[in-house]
Amino acid sequence: MKDVVKIGTVGEERFVVSAQHLIDFAHEGMPAILCTPWLIWFLEHAARNAMLPLLEPGESTVGVVINVEHLAPTPPGAQVVCRARVIFTDGPLISFQFEAHDEHEKIANGTHKLRVIQAARLAKKVAAKMHK
User: Fold this and answer.
1) Is the residue at 115 inside a domain?
2) N or C terminus: which one in the chain shows less Cβ crowding within 10 Å?
3) What are phi and psi of 52, to 5 degrees?
């Protein structure tokens, strides 16, 4: 990494809920709403965005732990803001607290850990699994 990760560093990811982000069982009275797996995807990217300016060439990040509480439904067309704030660092392991809000309320909160890794080393491990 180019620099030490500072406690309080924030990353953000914004999106508008579209058809691809909705639960796939919206029928028989169940409304079309943002599904939790897509929400997690955006929350993880908020954490990654906090780290991108600090990564050296060849470095990347991988998520290793995620704890999400999906608090409220969000309909199609709503704008969502996901923010992740660094709360602890232990070498390449970075811990975040995050929240997501739509235009009306907080829709999620939780914690996340990601690890800064060497992309080539990870690619080597993946290649070894593919050849077995």
Assistant:
1) yes
2) C
3) -50, -45
Nearest to 122 by CA among 58, 50, 66: 58
3-state SS, one letter per residue, for 41-80: HHHHHHHHHHHHHHCCCCEEEEEEEEEEEECCCCCCCCEE
Cα(16)–Cα(62) distance, integer angstroms: 24
Does any domain span residue 82? yes
Q: What is the DSSP-derived secondary structure letter of residue 40? A: H
What's this model's pTM, rounded to 2 decimal places? 0.93
Q: Could you read off the pLDDT of 47-67 as tens digits, one per residue?
A: 999 999 999 999 999 999 999
Would you state the pLDDT for residue 54? 95
Within-domain flag for 4: no
Count structural domains, the chain: 1
Residue 110 lies in a domain: yes
Half-sphere exposure (Cβ direction) of 46: Cα atoms closer than 13 Å: 31
Cα separation, 4 vs 84, whole angstroms: 17
Over residues 78-116, the pLDDT tens digits come to 999 999 999 999 999 999 999 999 999 999 999 999 999
